[in-house]
Write a structure and sequence with these properties.
The protein is α/β, with parallel strands linked by helices and 279 residues long. It has one domain (6-261): Metallo-dependent phosphatases (Purple Acid Phosphatase, chain A, domain 2). Helices cover 21% and strands 23% of the residues. It has 6 helices and 13 strands. The strands form 3 sheets. Strands 4-5-6-7-9-8 form a 6-stranded mixed β-sheet, with helices on one face. Strand 8 and strand 9 form a beta hairpin. The chain is globular, with a radius of gyration of 19 Å.
Length: 279
């Protein structure tokens, strides 16, 4: 019997502030998360796991994490998270103390096994800096983790994308030691996808021959300036998230990623009438 598909919903860059505060003076990130939680709870079939890939809060303050946890409380799905550059690692660990971290201190790496799939989460945050880097202990942990159960497919999540996107002010903040990550991925073909956040746009490319994605935002998008002609800015585009679907099959199976807009939309409407004719 073919194992069932594994569904991983990815949301990213929540940027939760203290109650009543707006991000950048215009974005109600708390309302955006509330709307997304309602959408996730309504999904059928339901995702097996929600991965939150960094920047859970905007300034790293304990009050922000307390507000975040209140907003996530109605979520009826299991979730796990890694920090981004807007998080503060110590406060992040304190707020999400129930996660099974690979180490009690330092980078907040962790792994989850969902059915026939491994979900590996890497902490790429650098305390006090906007760019990303995987420290030597994280790289060693990733190598050792991927060497175990080498027949199981794995998805790797981190906050900072290990490649450039063409948006200059974001590319200056990407993963600084991306070649080290790519080298490990090449040695472990069970890695089927690398998924990041940080850029607030849906982006797809290849890293070390593996599909690599960036999660769209549930709140505000980064302005798509590919000429570096404008000041860094945001846009209020339709909110969305990624649904990664692992399908068992030959070798390590297949992974497909769907972009899902957040909200209520008309439909579904049938294509065919009762007599089988196209409507």
């Amino acid at each position: 019997m073919t194992p069932p598909a594994v569904l991983i919903a990815q949301i990213s860059d929540l940027h939760i502030k203290r109650p009543g505060q707006m991000a950048y003076g215009v974005v109600d990130t708390a309302q955006a998360l509330e709307r997304c939680v309602v959408h996730l709870n309504r999904m059928q079939p339901r995702p097996h796991l929600v991965v939150i890939s960094g920047d859970l809060v905007d300034g790293g303050a304990p009050e922000e994490y307390a507000h975040l946890l209140r907003l996530l409380a109605p979520l009826e799905l299991p979730y796990c998270a890694i920090p981004g550059n807007h998080d503060r690692r110590e406060n992040f660990r304190s707020a999400l103390a129930g996660q099974d971290y690979a180490s009690p201190h330092g980078a907040a790496n962790l792994k989850a096994a969902i059915g026939g799939l491994d979900v590996v989460l890497l902490d790429s945050s650098v305390p006090g800096a906007p760019h990303g880097e995987l420290d030597p202990l994280t790289l060693a942990w990733l190598e050792a983790t991927l060497a175990v159960a080498s027949a199981r497919p794995a998805l790797v999540f981190l906050h900072h994308p290990p490649y450039v996107t063409g948006i200059a002010h974001m590319d200056r903040q990407n993963l600084r030691n991306a070649p080290a990550l790519a080298a490990i991925v090449r040695r472990h073909p069970r890695v089927r996808m690398i998924a990041a956040g940080h850029v607030h746009r849906a982006i797809v490319t290849l890293v070390a021959g593996v599909p690599a994605t960036i999660c769209p935002p549930i709140n505000h998008a980064v302005d798509l300036d590919l000429t570096d002609a404008r000041v860094p800015a945001l846009r209020l585009e339709p909110p969305a998230f990624h649904l990664h679907v692992w399908l068992a099959g030959a070798g390590f199976g297949e992974v497909v990623t769907h972009l899902l807009p957040v909200g209520d939309f008309p439909g579904p409407y049938p294509f065919f009438a009762a007599d089988g004719s196209l409507m």
